[in-house]
Amino acid sequence: EAQVTQNPRYLITVTGKKLTVTCSQNMNHEYMSWYRQDPGLGLRQIYYSMNVEVTDKGDVPEGYKVSRKEKRNFPLILESPSPNQTSLYFCASSLLIAPDTQYFGPGTRLTVL
Amino acid sequence: AQSVTQPDIHITVSEGASLELRCNYSYGATPYLFWYVQSPGQGLQLLLKYFSGDTLVQGIKGFEAEFKRSQSSFNLRKPSVHWSDAAEYFCAVGAGTSYDKVIFGPGTSLSVIP
A81 — contact with chain B (CB < 8 Å)? Predict the structure, then answer.
């Protein structure tokens, strides 16, 4: 089954404790992206990647890191999480580099205390 | 700056009634436009998209949208709403120099009265 998976689905952590949210897609997609969703703000793009070893900043990259060492995986790293990073995070992928239909993962609910 | 606005935060309609969700964008070049739907507790699913050509596009679940360049709008419509259409709806635009960024609007929450 074609899908985008994220782990964990729910995470409660404390300020400053490094964490990684994994994202994997099995559709051989070129483009992958991370978003955060906050009430009243919609989805805001954090980072995106157009191919292996090619990543770029979205609109809200501060406090986040990403890597794309393999085509299928695109982990999101929070080196020192803060409470303002409490949010719902979505990973997405699309076949083409230019904006195309994005397929979204189920989301990761992160709470930073 | 590139942006997407959805003027209606929340809309309530009766089942069987028609629906129009508004979307306005700000983008200098020809936009790539999308509508996504998010059911409660789920990820987002594409309803339809516009890249070029016919300005009236058909999507899944009986939805359609019309691109109006003069009004910078891409409104979503459905002639008869079903209770299962209750969800959050997001308009989005492909942006950036290579259309590699995606900007989402704040969303419109739709409630359907039986």
Answer: no
